[in-house]
Amino acid sequence: MKDINKLSLTLITTLVLLLFSAGLVNPPLAQGQPNSIEEGIQEMLGLDELAEGYFTLLSDEGLRLLRTARVIRVGNQYHTLDNKLYEVHTVEGHTAWARFVKDIPLGAKPTAYPPGIATRWDAQPVQQQEERKIAIYHTHGDESYVPSDGSESIDEGGGIIQVGAAFAEALEEMGVKAIQSEETHYPHDAGAYNRSRRTAVELLGEKPDAIFDVHRDAVPPEEYEAQVDGEQITQVQLVVGQQNQNMGTIQQYAEELKRIGDEKYPNLIKGIFYASGDYNQDLSPHSLLIEVGTHENPREQAEEAMTFFADVTTTYLYGEGVAAQSGRDRTTKSASKGILWLLGALVLVGGIYLYIATGSWEGAGKKLRQFISTEFRDVLGQRPRQPAGNEPPPDDIEEEK
Fold this sequence. Notes:
This protein has ten helices and 13 strands. It is an alpha/beta fold and 401 residues long. Strands 2-1-5-4-3-12-11-13-8-6-7 form an eleven-stranded mixed sheet, with helices on both faces. A two-stranded antiparallel ribbon has the order 9-10. Helix 4 (159-173) packs parallel to helix 7 (299-318), helix 6 (247-264) packs across helix 7 (299-318) and helix 7 runs antiparallel to helix 8. The longest helix has 39 residues, at 320-358.
């Protein structure tokens, strides 16, 4: 089916190119104009990413800032991992160049917060909601992770759905009701965002505090590889659409999530890409598209990343108290796993020792039973049972002389 979609796009592209060459149709050349006639056609068809390959974004000094399958156009901006803002000024083929705009101070807290957000991230909630809710959906629900799922795309529902489920589970553990749609909106074509828009509207009818469209990228795996809190995970990239009336508010929202992520889990949030498009973010000022790893990363690492991102999100929306409790729960679970692992290792080593000492598993079992019935009982302070009729006299009765 994917090959058929690519063939259809090729045929449409060829047809429109013929119309262009005949002067019957003019390509769209507006703000955020396409880099070529081919990409102009993609824009007309509502396609925001490449079917094959990816873009590379370089600074004017030659530093590689970003690789992404999303189309990069002049005027797009990128907020890097180390909190520097760049703006794209030139695109040639699948390579783009960006000029440095400004540093974004790490840890700085804005003086104004988006309307409707419940709290500043370092303060107590301004208003306690009756029920905390976060919505999750997937415009490209076929997206998958090759190492774990065996394919980069699964029509009936890819690994990205499971990544969203891991996000939902982590939120639920923090006392937040997670509303996830598992609709795939397949096929992965120009109409996907129109179909997912209906899903987003339905989810927003539940009045969630925030809504996330969860995707994965399609670039080499090292682009998203990172270690966070001692664990190997995939990074999370935030995507903000430049063509919607909520862009300014969503920018503040994304920047604040990035700041909290940097403070709590350095390396988790890879950056913020300000891309041409809407991404249905006009529906809510608390709407955000996120890329969780790429098709060549293990899905399990993407799932783990979402447990950290859930902590970041709840910290911003509901205050540090929710996140702190989740952190304690996480630490307790990790410690429990460590103790169980240690006990298992001790049992294994002890079994091997007894086998070597006795020369057989039968002898090892006998020794183990003897240990449980004697030494272990002594440790608990229990006396071995005496045979009937041989009970010792009570301590307070003197023996007859």
